[in-house]
């Protein structure tokens, strides 16, 4: 039976997932005794609601901002392939090249940007990444040819590389030490909510406005 290109790609993904799971199973972390004892006082009480102290209220504001930002980002995700095919009339090779270029930039930025992020701070770096995403969306709104579409892929790749580090660290910076597991659960819940809201609202809004 002949193998199709998508089957080959999926099989590579399967091998990558298996290899990742194997490597993670071999990782062993030894915590110092003092770290374990200090963490013992921050074990959650078993309640599904975290404590609303000043750190918790600050964290809620951070989560709300990230919810708004990620919802807007996920509104674009289901529309991008339709826009590239139906409006720009790009072929598979061009779309694949733009995707590969963006992913390569994410990889390169993730390697070379950490020093810059440490110098600017995670909050400012997250804002810069969000601004680059906004610039990508603005450029896409005026894209009518392949050249500008490639430029949007470059801007999006750089933005994703910055946000992949800065946004995660910005979230961890504001994560309250008390009831961390409960707060992380709520953050995951709001992350899934952003995915759901954005994926539903984007196509609906596009259907109304074009």
Describe the protein's topology:
Elements: H1 5-25, H2 33-40, H3 54-76, H4 80-87, H5 92-112, H6 114-120, H7 122-141, H8 146-174, H9 180-209
Helix pairs in contact: 3-9, 5-8, 7-8
What's this entry about, in short?
With 210 residues, the protein is mainly α. It is 80% helix and 0% strand.
Assembly type: single chain
Number of helices: 9
Mean pLDDT: 82
Total beta-strand segments? 0
Look at the helices and sheets and give the structural class: mainly alpha
Which parts are unreliable, with pLDDT below 50 for 5 consecutive residues or more?
35-41
Helix content: over 70%
Describe this structure in words.
The chain is mainly α. Helix content is 80%, strand content 0%. It has 9 helices and no strands. The longest helix has 30 residues, at 180-209. Residues 35-41 have low confidence and may be disordered.
Keywords:
9 helices, mainly alpha, 210 residues
């Amino acid at each position: 039976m002949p193998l199709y290109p998508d089957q080959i790609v999926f099989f590579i993904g399967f091998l990558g997932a298996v290899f990742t799971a194997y490597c993670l199973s071999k990782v062993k972390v030894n915590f110092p005794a003092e770290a374990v004892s200090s963490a013992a006082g921050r074990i959650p009480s078993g309640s599904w609601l975290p404590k609303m102290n000043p750190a918790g209220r600050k964290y809620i504001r951070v989560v709300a901002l990230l919810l708004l930002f990620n919802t807007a980002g996920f509104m674009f995700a289901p529309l991008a392939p339709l826009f590239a095919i139906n409006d720009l009339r790009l072929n598979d090779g061009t779309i694949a090249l733009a995707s590969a270029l963006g992913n390569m930039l994410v990889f390169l930025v993730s390697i070379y940007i950490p020093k810059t992020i440490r110098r600017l701070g995670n909050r400012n770096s997250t804002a810069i990444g969000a601004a680059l995403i906004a610039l990508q969306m603005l450029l896409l709104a005026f894209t009518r040819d392949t050249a500008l579409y490639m430029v949007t892929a470059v801007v999006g790749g750089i933005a994703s590389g910055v946000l992949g580090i800065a946004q995660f660290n910005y979230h961890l910076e504001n994560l309250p030490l008390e009831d961390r597991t409960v707060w992380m659960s709520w953050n995951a819940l709001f992350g899934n909510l952003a995915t759901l809201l954005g994926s539903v609202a984007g196509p609906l809004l596009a259907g109304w406005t074009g």
